[in-house]
Amino acid sequence: MVLVDKPTGMTSNRVVQIVRRIFNASTAGHTGALDPLATGMLPVCLGEATKFSQLMLEADKAYRVVAKLGERTDTSDADGTVVERHPVNITEADVLAALPQFRGDIQQIPSMFSALKYEGKPLYEYARAGKTVPRKARDITVYSLELVEFTGDTATMDVHCSKGTYIRTIVDDLGQALGCGAHVQQLRRTAIENFPVDKMITLEALEKAAEDGPPDELLLPMDMTAMELPALSLDEREVRNFVHGQPIRRTEAGDLFRVYAGNGDFWGVAERRQDGDLWPRRVVVR
């Protein structure tokens, strides 16, 4: 796995294809897309690690966002078309007073320009066709939402939130609450769970490192996608059963585990089923 510092103006899928080419990987995938406008941490899984990328969709994330006040766009970000303009007659105190309603356990209606699907099609396809379809409010948690800087027509904020949170929707809703409208001018994903920020690398640096061949020394271990799960060490017989799809009888508390052999090799993720046994959920093929 590689932690890419995604550049602005590029799709997440394009980043994945570049990284896949650099490492000559048979398969590759990301663990949660960033919009072309956005920058920051984009974990790219290669080969067997793609089996575990789904786990990271559940991870908490952190962002720094710059909200442009006074303009509302159809996409709620700077890539969209301005649909409303209003004078910005608010103060820093007004912004601070509006933020608490967006903290904690709240419900959010996803943007029409999201990748969520309705009747099998992503919402953004309907939006680009000028259609609006029903969306259910989703339960999210905003652990923190802090104002970093206020300049009069922009508000820079740090957000720490749960999975499924749309920063552009928070900004659009904030603009409505302030009565002046707002959209995302800049967005950077600064963290995902406990991934090491110091291991993040730009595409430019990655391509330079690959001039003499795949820079395998920059790869991170695939079990990093599951580090939030408790670890389970198996003996030789249990490992053999696990990789062949057989259950393991263990009494440790928990429903999902990282599975290791006694020598430290990572073999996958086990899940507890109704019978109480631990069954393979994802298995590494070696």
Describe, in short, the structure shown.
With 286 residues, the protein is an alpha+beta fold.
Q: What would you note in describing this structure?
A:
The chain has 286 residues and is of the alpha+beta class. The chain is 19% helix and 34% strand. Strands 1, 2, 3, 4, 7, 10, 11, 12 and 13 form a nine-stranded mixed beta sheet that branches. The protein has a four-stranded mixed beta sheet with strand order 14-15-16-17. The protein has a two-stranded antiparallel ribbon with strand order 5-6. The mean pLDDT is 93.
Helix and strand topology:
Layout: E1 2-6, H1 12-22, E2 28-30, E3 39-46, H2 53-56, E4 61-69, E5 71-73, E6 82-85, H3 92-98, E7 104-108, E8 117-118, E9 121-122, H4 123-128, E10 138-150, E11 154-161, H5 167-178, E12 182-192, E13 201-202, H6 203-209, E14 231-234, H7 236-243, E15 256-261, E16 266-272, E17 278-283
Parallel strand pairs: 1-13, 3-12, 14-15
Antiparallel strand pairs: 1-3, 2-3, 4-11, 4-12, 5-6, 7-10, 8-9, 10-11, 15-16, 16-17
